[in-house]
Amino acid sequence: MDILIYSPDGKTAAYETGLAEHLPQANIRGWQPGDTAPADYLVLWKPNAEVLQPRERLKAIFNLGAGVDGVLGTRGEGAHRLPAGVPLVRLEDAGMADQMAQYVSAAALRYFRRLDDFDAQQAQAQWKFQKPNRLSDFPIAVLGYGTLGAHVAKALKTFGFPVRAWSRSERQDDSGVALYHGDAGFDACVGGARILVNLLPLTPQTVDVLNANLFAKLAQGAFLINVARGAHLVEADLLVALESGQIAGATLDVFRTEPLPADHPFWHAPRVTVTPHISALTLRDETVAQIAGKIAALARGEAITGIVDLARGY
């Protein structure tokens, strides 16, 4: 079994070592320019066109992340680069779900408990009471109910928030989260929400989904938490909504250009919190174990989960 690993920075040694520990029988190598040799499996992140050229014996391509826009492109324009008939497999959790739930919960609780207001008062040396919010008046809408979205929604539910979640296709569980799906359910999910959490996959259909039209459906003075992809957000629309007060604050972990340019207005917007794409980091050991387990399953002729529907983009 031959496994080829690609990273745009060329740093594949740690993944080579980790996979070798799980799959000692495999021949594992890091990709170098000009490598057209056979491989049974590709493990990669943001690949170039050369590494995706048709390769003898190739059975599957494993993406080193949950989001596959680094392979398919922001609008799916890169899907044609994939070798025909070879499945693309995304990561499922790999240690990210707990981190994401912690990050989103911290941001939601900061807004609910008005900690930003108290920070502003501290800057003015003001000792002043702020009327507390009521949980019943703080519905949270979570866009995206996959592995990460479901974990986040359930975590928010434990704090007593009324939580709704939306997905493209119908989902069912006993979590107590109000579930919506499809075009018909979108407005019902987001309408009147005080906090909007975006965990959608980036597909041609979801580019620019966080826009003025959506913001207008939220409660006046709502809050935005974007932890999915920067291309989901129409940045100019958010700045206008912040200026008008329709959006009272935003926590942004992802951006159209990363690193965020030093002259970007988000850095200095008083009601925007910027973090450098750290809401849920891919944990190497968990990632390696998951990919190795799926490679072993495929080698035994077993089915695996996480195969990307290229038409949907996730």
Q: In words, what does this structure look like?
A:
With 314 residues, the protein is α/β, with parallel strands linked by helices. The protein has two domains: 2-94 and 282-300, 3-Layer(aba) Sandwich (Rossmann fold), CATH 3.40.50.720; 97-274, Rossmann fold (3-Layer(aba) Sandwich). The protein contains nine helices and twelve strands. Strand 4 (60-63), helix 2 (69-72) and strand 5 (88-89) form a beta-alpha-beta unit. The longest helix has 17 residues, at 96-112. It comes from Pandoraea captiosa. This is Glyoxylate/hydroxypyruvate reductase A. Pfam families: 2-Hacid_dh_C. One of its GO terms (molecular function) is oxidoreductase activity, acting on the CH-OH group of donors, NAD or NADP as acceptor.
Q: Which descriptors would you attach to this protein?
A:
Rossmann fold, Glyoxylate/hydroxypyruvate reductase A, oxidoreductase activity, acting on the CH-OH group of donors, NAD or NADP as acceptor, seven-stranded parallel sheet, alpha/beta, 314 residues, D-isomer_DH_CS, NAD, 29% helix, single chain, D-isomer_DH_NAD-bd
Can you give me a brief rundown of this structure?
The chain is built from nine helices and twelve strands.
